[in-house]
Structure formats: structure tokens, C-alpha cells
Amino acid sequence: MIGQGLNRVDGPLKVAGRAAYAYEHWEAGQPLYGVIVGATIGKGRITRIDTEDAESAGGVRMVMTYHNAPAQGPRDESIALEYWRAQPVLTGPEIHYYGEPVALVVAETFEQARAAAELVEVEYAVGRGRFDFAGDDEETYIPKVVNAGLPTDTSVGDFDAGFDAAAVRVDAYYTTPYEFSMPMEPHACLAEPRGEDLVVYVSCQIVDAAQSSVAGTLRMDPARIHIVSPFVGGGFGSKLGIHAETVLAALAARELRQPVKVALTRQQVFQLVGLRPTSSQRVRLGAGRDGRLAALAHDVTMHTNRDLEYAEQTAATTRSLYAAPHRLTSHRLTPLDLPRGSDVRAPGEAPGLLAVESAMDELADALGMDPVELRIRNEPTVDPERDVPYSDRHLVDCLRDGARRFGWEHRPATPASVREGRWLVGYGMAAAIRGHFQGPTAARVRLEPDGTAVVQSDMTDIGTGTYTILTQVAAEGLGLPPDRVRIELGRSGLPSSWGSGGSWGAAGSSTAVHRACAALREKLLVAARGDERSALHGRDPAGAVFAGGTVRIGDASEPLGEIVARHHPDGAEAEGTTLFMGDDPNYSAYSIHTYGAHFAEVGVDADTAEIRLRRMLGVFSVGRVLNPKTARSQLIGGMIWGAGAALEEEAVVDLRSGAFVNRDLAQYLVPVHADIPDVEVVILDGYDDKANVLGAKGIGELGICGSGAAVANAVFNATGTRVRDFPITIEKLLPGLPPLED
User: Fold this and answer.
1) H or E element, residue 602
2) The sheet that has 101-107: what strands, in order across it?
3) Please, which residues have CB within 8 angstroms of residue 611's CB and are 6 or more apart in sequence?
4) Which of 700, 625, 682, 619 is nearest to 437 (CA)?
């Protein structure tokens, strides 16, 4: 079953509207509704807040402000990961960023709560906020570490000497804007008090983190917090931790002793759930005339919230990609009075590869060399900074196969040299790399006396196909048809995992299920071999085959259900686990990544500079593929996101207030169907035995890594104009277009 393109087992539920998301649970009965009131300044303090009119409005049950909000636990910096920490809200009059919650209005209907929220009067003493990343950088500082605990800076050899001596050099700055995760399902929560316990129906990516965070915030025993999140309508990093809607719903439910439901509006999603930091990236490449890199540097400065630090690992993407004896990477932070940065799909690699792979294209142009050949010439034999072997690296295979499939030999050798009527035509490509991570994950597999299997984990399915791949792993592990396997996910109380995020979810949870099935098979074989009533009595278990719901050893077989019913009348079960990667020796002995190569063709209107993507191809090496159908979907989605990052996505800050001006999907542009033509995905056969026993690695974020740079490089090839300030818009491209022909 592993490796088959099985249709989503949860598909019928979803197309029938019977998959319950956070806002759609009715087990608790009729809830109350909460609406969040946000600050209308970006820095300062509340001097007066008047809730009298709101409290007297029809149906209103509570107006919560910092004056009457229950005491909450502080963010505990000793907890290593932000998503497990308390997330207190309404703790005082200080305003730290635009849109920060200043009140929660709870009423009997949503309409009543929304109307009453308009009646809350707030006066502020406006402080002097800093909202301009491009302004004075005198406060810029060096963080202790960057995201994922990676070192802030690295240095190998003597970069300055190597760069100065290089025959051909590129020294360029690239800027990337603020970007947001925008899942289809807005962030929502229904909190239901049950005696001293609290049931929290919430859209989250990591159940264990949500439980710990809610418990820490409410100062409750985590065992009394019950998280329910069976279906999540997308996350892309924005639901790794809980946010204001969850905390406020929980606080109000406990105070009112009734269920309370709170959902963010789309505009509030832009304000309250974090964002990808804006960045300025300097990339320096020094090479010989043969294209071999002698020196490589990647220096990144990005914004951070003044009170809650987040340092995206943007330069870390460069550390394992290309060989060069002299190397330098660094990260710096500029504090602003804006929402904190947070993990957005492919943190680090997505913005970092936009810059690095654009710079490699610039180097290829300066050398007069094919961009594919340049990358192949700089293929390392070992990790150039860690000096350890790669576990399974097939980047060159991706480059060569992609070039062949795409027809790269037809690429215009001279930029702005191919024209089809009004359209300038160009080809671009870029390499992709993404670190493979592993978190501690546990799964329980239970075989019932009727021969059906139940898989249990608090692992989440954020739309990526977790229910399906775990069905496949368990079906293969126990020799059952898929319809005899039931998956139970997304609830605290089930074996704990790191959930869905960082592309670690599928491989980690599948490995845990695989190991649980192996332990369960062993338990059943021991029982059968020692049972004189069994047809398998005394047989050598080394030859056992589990298939079709039976166990066969040689010419003897017995149904699984009969073994279970005889020896485990209440069912037989076993658990499997994976280690945190820091405890797995393979992660220190090897450099473990996924790889890809992107190719894009664009047309650029010679009169207006309108850019039209014509086709994209991605070739990927991800180890063993669990389900090619869901894997392909993930990679296509990532490639489209990369195209959007190159051409459309950009959040604009009002420098007077710190508000995001375009905080809705009408003005914050993302690709739509008309923007995206043919997208082709090819996944190379593979198996990485250093990653895990299944040989599988993460897929969800690899598709976005490098795809934007391929599009940007195609725009340069079409026009001869290099835009280094992303996204590439008409206004930036038009002045550099070649003159019109007579």
C-alpha cells in the first residue's frame, strides 16, 4: 500500500460537508459568540475604555478588557519552543502593535456581538512607534540563535580574501516583503466548560502545543484541558501555536460557564497570527572563470517585534547548498512595533532562496555560462560547513532531468532576445533545498477482535492527507485492506506528536505507525506460535506474511481476528515512536535534506510589462514517496506559492499607524487560477535510510523553495532587467524594458 496513489479516505466526509472544523462542532449545544475589538493605534497606551453602551446592548453577556480579564500565566522563556508557552492577552493598557486585542464582546448571537463591539469606546495616548524597516537601523542587533535553534552566524575559511581574489564577483542586495499565511479556514475556537475541565475545539497544527499553551495561559492542569482538532483547513505555520481567539474564548467560557465561540475575521488574521518578516539580504558570490565558487556570503537583516523576538533562518538555507572553500552567513534583527514574525511555509528557505538563486543566475550571466551547468559545477561532495556526508543527495539528478524534460536547450542564451508578437519570452531555473526535520512522535495501533485496525495519535491533518497516508502505512503493516483501517487524530489524550509543521509530520507519524505495526505483529506471532490451537503453532515467525487479513507461515494461515479474539478479547495494541532529531545519531552524522530543481517560462508584455507565467516544471528528490497523489498536490501548491511570492505577495505598512493597508484578500494578492497555467511535477524514485526506517522525507514545503527564483530568473531572461526588490511588479519592471522596435 505504501507508495500507492490512494484517494483521500477523508474525501467523502469533506465533499459532503460532514468533516467538522473548529467553528462547526455542536456537541456542546448552542454557544455564545465573541468578537474581538482591536487597537486602532500601533504604539501607545489606553487612557480610557468605556464599555457601558456595549454592555447594555441587546444579548450581550460580557465585555472583557484588561480591567476585568482573569489573571493569566506569563510567557515562560524557559520553555524552549514558543508554541508551547502561555499566550496571555488583555493584560494591561499598553499597545504593542496595531490590531492588538483591547476587548472581547460576548453575546447570544454573532450579530449582537459584532454590533456591540462597535460601541466600545477607547481613547489612547499615542506613542512614537517605529514602523519603517527601511529607516534608521541603529537598533539592529545580533540574536543569540535563529529559528530552530540554528547558529546565528557561520564562517568557514577567509571570505574576504577569497572574495577579493575571485575573477568574477556578484555583490547584490535583495529585499523581500512582509508575507502572511492565509489558510482557507480562518483561525477559530469553541471553548466548552465541563465541570473543572475545559474542552477546546480549535484549529491548530500541534495538539500538544495547544494543550500546554492553553493550560499555561489559564493556569490550569494540562490534564484538564482537552484539545479537539480532527480537521484543520490549512495552516502553513500560522496554526503551529494558539492565538488570541483561543485564549479569549477559553477565558470567557470559564467566566460565563457556557460555551463560547470566537473566530477571527480575515482582516484580523492579518493582524493577530504573525507574519513572515520583511528582509534585506546581501548575497556575495566570488568565482573563477570556470564558474567554481571560491567565496560565498549571505547576510540577512529582518524585522522583529520589539517584545517578542523571531529570527527567521533565512541565511541558513545557503549553508548546505553549494561548495565553496570560503563562506560566511549572518542574521541581524531590526526591532519594530509590528506583529511578531512567525513560521510561514518554508521559513528560511522560501525568502532565502529567492535571493541566493537569483544571485546564482546573476553569476551565470556574468560568466556567460548556462545556469544549470553553473550549479552542477558547484555540487559539494560533503556538507561544506558541517563537513559530514549527505544522507541521500540527488540535486544534480533533479537538475539534469528537469532540463531535459523542460527543453532547457531552447532557452534564449541572450536576455531579451526572443519575442513572440507583443511578448518577450524567457526561461528561468533555480535549485531547491529544504532541511528534513524530525520531532518526537508516538502512535498507537489497535487490532480489534473483528480484524479491523484503529490508529491513534494526536497528529493533525491540515489538508495534506494525513488520514490517507497513515491508513496506507497501517494497511501495509498489518496486511489489511484500507477499508479495514480507521484513523483517529487530533485529540489530546491520544499518543503525543509534534503534529503537522516543518514538513516533519508525514514522515514522523508514518514511522511511528510503522513501528507500532511491527510491535503488534510480533505480539500476535508470539501468541500464535505458543498456542496449540493455532495453525501457526511452532512455526518459524521469520517466514510470516501478513496479507488479506490473515497471517501465513508456509502452507499454514490464520485470520488475524481469530488470533486477537482468542488471546486479546478486548483487542491487541502496541505503540511506536520516533525520536527528536537531536537524539537521533543520524542527524549529527549526516546532512539530511530534500532537493529539487525548478524551471519556468514567462511572457512579458513589451509595452506594459505585464508578466504572464506560461509553464512551470519541478523535479524533486524526497526519499520514498508515501502517496504520489497527495505528494504531487503538495508540491504543486508550493510551486504556485513561490510564483506568488515572486510576482504578487506583498503586505504594505502604513508608516503612520503601523497598520497593514492591504489586509484582505482583495488587495493582498495571491495567485488565482488565471495566473497559473500548466504546472508539472516529477518525483524521482528514492529511499533515504538515514532519515527513518521508511526512507521518507518531508514534502510540504519543498515546492515553494526556489520556485519564485526560477520565475524571477525567467523574467530577467525575457527582458534583460533584473528586479531585486520582490515582488516583481509592473512598476519595478517597466522602466527597464528594452526599447520598442520601430
Assistant:
1) strand 593-605
2) 60-64, 101-107, 32-38, 260-263, 188-194, 197-202, 225-228
3) 602, 603, 604, 605, 647, 715, 728, 730, 733
4) 700
The CA angle 643-646-651, to the nearest 5 degrees, is 110
Type of residue numbered 389: P
Amino acid at 518: A
Three-state DSSP state, 106: strand
For the segment 601-640, what is each residue's pLDDT rounded down to a tens digit? 999 999 999 999 999 999 999 999 999 999 999 999 999 9
Per-residue pLDDT tens over the stretch 514-524: 999 999 999 99
pTM for the structure as a whole: 0.97
State the pLDDT confidence band at 138, using cuts at 50, 70 and 90.
Answer: confident
Cis status, amide bond into 727, omega within 30 of 0 = yes
Residue at grid coordinates 541581524: 332
Cell of 107: 453575546
Catalytic residue numbers? 701
Contacts 24+ apart (CB under 8 A), 14-17: 14/231
Nearest to 606 by CA among 734, 696, 467: 734
> Cα(358)–Cα(229) distance, rounded to whole angstroms?
40
Instruction: Please give the C-alpha separations between residue 341 and each of 264, 337, 419, in angstroms, as whole numbers.
Output: 18, 11, 42
pLDDT in tens, 367-407: 999 999 999 999 999 999 999 999 999 999 999 999 999 99
**What is the helix (H) or strand (E) element at residue 279, kind and residue range?**
strand 279-287
